[in-house]
């Protein structure tokens, strides 16, 4: 029943029109909109630079999809420009499904977004740079419908993610930060590097138990937050786990903490951490604002009726196994926060702060291979216990009288 409600909510989201805003819309400035290749033409693919002139800065979102490779740019609160088809810029303009203007550019081949920045009020323009990548390195968003319609696609329930005949549990691990956002730093060691290393160790522990694991990044690169959850959805994840070891907010105790989604959280430390976690997308000029209409927000809450309790159950199982292993936890080990990577309404999602690099004891633990192994094994046992519990609940719900 709960899965049916979730599917209904997501289906209704596809049909919800976004009301036009009362305030005046921003305008695209065609005279300041440019598109061109960078560097000399040596017979090889070249980077591409796009500038979209505006009369004021606006929230925006960016995606790369395939079939063929295309760049999709949505500008909120913006009037679609009246530019005739066949314009030499090769940008196709129209109305974005969630309101505002949408520009679509067919790319010359596989590319990835390197930088995206929105200018200031004195120089309002969105500037993007894309670079060519080899076909095997091309990672477009696979959920094209999500991009084109602006809502998430439902993920299969626990035990059914991997297709017919494959009932293995599937977990997506997300090493926090990466690329030009190193996260917290201590003595030349970055949070991004520490979490990537731990994610690999954690993945090995999970795979040893027959769990299928996907990492959102395998090296030190920038992955937009939205793409991290998109990867989880595309892979049919049963559980999404984001890994962090941040800087210690003033006045906060040390120790591990597990977060689940709470869009109404007013916890000061959680808000500070959310700003740090979201910093890479903000530096890249990607839109993290939550400006859904009230009805859409309500439908998203409806979609979480099934997912949110499962996220909270997963957090409790992990805390229990960490306690059994003697891992020091925060005085409040399970907390709620509005972290962007926890927004998915259809995949149970957790964000784990393993500790704080700026705290001496936590830092010593994070650098200790034996401690990391103990934590990875405890988290693995917690995930297995959670999956078994979920399977038991599903069996009980489906049992006849």
Automatic annotation (TrEMBL):
Keywords: Hydrolase, Signal. One of its GO terms (molecular function) is N-acetylmuramoyl-L-alanine amidase activity. Residues 1-22 form the signal peptide. GO terms for biological process: peptidoglycan catabolic process. One of its GO terms (cellular component) is outer membrane-bounded periplasmic space. Pfam families: Amidase_3. Its EC number is 3.5.1.28. It catalyses: Hydrolyzes the link between N-acetylmuramoyl residues and L-amino acid residues in certain cell-wall glycopeptides. InterPro entries: MurNAc-LAA_cat, N-acetylmuramoyl_amidase_3. Residues 229-384 form the MurNAc-LAA domain. This is N-acetylmuramoyl-L-alanine amidase.
